Amino acid sequence: MKILIVNAFDNNGGAARAALRLHEALLLENIDSQMLVVTKQSDKKNILTSQIKTSKWFKLIRYLQSNFLNPVRRYPEKTKTLFSSSFLVGSNIVETINKINPDIVHLHWVCNEMLAIEDISKIQAPIVWSLHDMWGFTGGCHYDEECGRFVGRCGQCKVLKSTIENDLSRDVFLRKQKTYSKISNMTIVGLSNWLSGCAKESSLFNGRKVVTIPNPIDTNVFKPIDKKVAREIFSLPKDKELILFGAMSATSDPRKGFLLLQEAVNQLQLENIELVIFGSGEPENVPSFKFKTHYLGQFYDDASLQVLYNACDVMVVPSVQENLSNTIMESLSCGLPVVAFSIGGNADLIDHKINGYLAEPADTEDLASGLDWVLYAGSYERLCINAREKTLTDFASDVVSRKYIELYSEVLSE
Questions:
Q1: Measured CA distances, 406 to 22, 385, 414 (Å)
Q2: Phi, psi at residue 88, to the nearest 5°?
Q3: Could you give the C-alpha distances from 164 to 76, 77, 139, 247, in angstroms and in order?
Q4: How many other CB atoms are found less than 10 A from the CB of residue 68?
Q5: Which of 77, 117, 134, 328 is in Cβ range 3.0-4.6 Å of 161 for a Cys bridge?
Q6: Is residue 286 scored above 70 in pLDDT?
Q7: Is 123 helix (H, G, I), strand (E, B) or coil?
Q8: In this predicted structure, what is the pLDDT of residue 7?
Q9: How many CB atoms lie within 10 A of CB 352?
């Protein structure tokens, strides 16, 4: 069985890390897996790049796309939510895919002008597509800000702040509709029950096979270690309760809920608390937290993240929309309880008052109550044990990779 995993990056962002983890888990199961990316940052084997990506021609195309040709530029009032039109590329990615001639092409996050929408139908092998956000079935947004228009034909895009029915989102939607109609063998994987449900409701994936399989995690890497040692490594105080928050663009992406975090933390009636933030440096306009805050910047390796999770007492994830959070999964695997809003795929990971706390969506008072409960309810050690057991049972690499192997076999038999 020859599998080709396709993702824009191999080590930058949650989707890249999840795709790479699956690739490595498949190799451990003796599956012939390769990974194809636009930007390779690791020194891992079996990861390929398309050679034309380094050419002057491609660099010129990317410059023009970013500065002059991107149709998103027609919407200067758009929100900060990512929107990808995927209309033009300067690569030979599809030619490379078909030359490799895998049994299955496993798409992951293929935006950033890696593939034009129309290129997807030119892939000759059966396609399995793991959705890391909503882009596959929307008119271009990666999260719909709860507008729900993907059930219809998009248009009047909330993310673009458009009042026009036949706007860019409608155009992208129609391009996807035409492209998908040419693909006979494509299976959709929602990484969470929430995203699978959205995909099934969408008009673009209507009638497609949609299954739910989570991201894998290496529980031999993300595991508990001595908290005192972990704090010494990061020079964090040993006599404080540490609340951890982090994500890509943690302080600047509105979807990650940094302002909601500020509201929640400032409601805590506690004294022995400090806050630890990773994924972003200290912002220019530093928010007014009532507790001392440590800004640790970005992390690019799992080993550092594992130590950081073990240094803290609770993880907080105040996201307003979330698929299957790597930070939640990584925290739980290290035995760190998590407090988050009950949105998206969070309930797939967090069992309320078993390994963490699920607060009412956008309710900062309840989020603060969750932090207080986890730290001081008296069942902290049991929460930590349950957190670790959850990942071992449901998300460990060998468990998830075998589910994918079973799916691949089903696809090939069809």
A1: 14, 30, 13
A2: -155, 135
A3: 15, 14, 13, 33
A4: 8
A5: 77
A6: no
A7: coil
A8: 94
A9: 12
Domains, the chain, in order of start with CATH, read 2-216+396-413 (3.40.50.2000), 227-394 (3.40.50.2000)
C-alpha to C-alpha distance for 307 and 171, rounded to whole angstroms: 46
Q: Is 291 exposed, middle or buried (CB count within 10 Å of its CB: 0-12, 13-18, 19+)?
A: middle
pLDDT of residue 311: 98
pLDDT score of 64: 72
DSSP 131: E
Q: Is 318 helix (H, G, I), strand (E, B) or coil?
A: coil
From 242, 257, 400, select the one nearest 331 (Cα to Cα).
Answer: 242
Q: Please count the other Cβ atoms lying within 10 Å of the Cβ belonging to residue 231.
A: 20
As beta bridge partners, residue 244 has 276, 315
The whole-angstrom separation of Cα 370 and Cα 377 is: 10
* Measured distance CA(230)–CA(219) in Å, rounded: 18
Tokens of 353: 């008052």
Cα torsion through 82, 88, 91, 97, rounded to 10: 80
Q: How far apart are the first and last CA of the chain?
A: 15
Distance CA 224, CA 180 (A): 44
- Backbone torsion region of residue 200, taken as left when φ is above 0, otherwise alpha when ψ lies between -120 and 50, otherwise beta: alpha
3-state DSSP of 108-120: CCCCCCCCCHHHH
Residue 241, beta-bridge partner list: 273
Burial (CB count within 10 angstroms: exposed 0-12, middle 13-18, buried 19+), residue 74: exposed
**What is the distance between the alpha carbons of residues 300 and 279, in angstroms, rounded to a whole number?**
9
| Cα(169)–Cα(379) distance, integer angstroms | 48
Task: Supply the pTM of this predicted model.
Answer: 0.90
DSSP 43-90: --TTEEE-GGGGSHHHHHHHHHIIIII-GGGG-TT--SS-B-------
How far apart CA 368 and CA 374 sit, in angstroms, is: 10
